[in-house]
Amino acid sequence: MIYIPTPEEFSYKELLKFLSRNEKECLHSIIDDVIFKVLEIDNELVLFSISFNNGLVATIHTDNQSQVIQEKVRTYIEDWFDLTADLKAFYDIAQQDLILFQLCQKYHGLRMVGMPNLFESLVWSVIGQQINLNFAYSLKQRLVHTFGKSFTFQGETFYALPTPETLAGLQIEDFQPYQFSRGKAQYIINISKAFVEGILSQQKLALLSYDEIKKQLVAIKGIGNWTANYSMMKSLKSYDAFPVEDVGLHNAVKTQYGLAGKPSIAELHQMSANWSGWRGYATFYFWHSLLG
DNA sequence: TACCAGGATGTTG
DNA sequence: CAACATCATGGT
What we know:
Blueprint: E1 2-4, H1 12-19, E2 29-31, E3 34-41, E4 44-52, E5 56-60, H2 67-80, H3 87-94, H4 98-106, H5 118-128, H6 133-147, E6 150-153, E7 156-159, H7 164-168, H8 172-175, H9 182-196, H10 202-205, H11 210-218, H12 225-235, H13 247-257, H14 265-271, H15 279-289
Antiparallel strand pairs: 1-5, 2-3, 3-4, 4-5, 6-7
Helix pairs in contact: 5-9, 5-12, 11-12, 13-15
The structure holds a DNA duplex.
C-alpha cells in the first residue's frame, strides 16, 4: 500500500467529478469512488487503484510490487493530480477577477487533473480537434481498445495507452475503420514517430522554456497553438499555458460572465491578463464549471 | 436542414 | 496576410 499525503487545498470530491466527466473514458475507471488505472512501466503493465482516507491510498494489483514500481506509481499520482502546485498563490491572483474567484471558492481544492504522459495529451488533443467531446471519446475508446494492452482484474478489464511504437507503425488506412479522418490519423502517426525517433522527448522538453517547448511542438504537423498549449498545461506543468482557441473555454466564459455571445480571441486575451501566471489553471477551472 | 463541435492545414485572392 | 475549404461524424 502506498500512502500519499494530500496538501491542505485538496478536494477528492471535485477530482472525482472531473475524472467522471465522460462515461466513455477508457484510460481510467471509477468504481465506488475508487480510481483504477493501468500504466505501462518498463514494458510491464501495472494496475493500481486509488482511494481517499485522510490522504490518498494507492494499491497495486499486478504482481510486481517492487520498490521501484511503487515509487513510479507514487510519482505518477502526484503528477496526475498536481499535488505540489501552490494553489494559494493561484487563489491570490484570482481575486483580481470576481468571476474566477467565485469559481475558486465553489471548487475549492480542485487541482489540475493532468496527463503525466505527454504522448497521451498530444494524442488526445489531436483526437479532440474540431469535433464534439462525445465523438472524441468514442474515437479514443476505439483507439485504446484496439491498440492498447489490457489487464483484467476482478472481472473488469482495464486498458493502457497505446505506445508510440505501436501507433507509429500504423498507416492512415488502419485508422479508418474507427472513423478517424485522414488528417487525424496522419497527425497521430506524425507525433508517434517523433517520439519513437527521439525528435520529441518529454524529458528533454521539461528542461526548456515555454517558448522553446512550444516551438518544438508546433513544428510537428498536426500540433497547432491550441494543442501545444493544451498539452503543456496538462503534461508539462505550464500553469500559464493558455489554449485560447478552446471552444469549451469560450462556452464556459460566456456562461460564467453572462455574455450575450461567445467571447472573441482578443477579448479572451484581455480578460486573461488578470490570470497572468495561472492562465492554464484558470482555464481548467472554467472547464470544470461546464460540469456544474 | 444547416450549423456547430476541446483545430489545423493547405489553398486562394 | 486574411479568408475559405476541407476533414468525418454526432448532436441539435
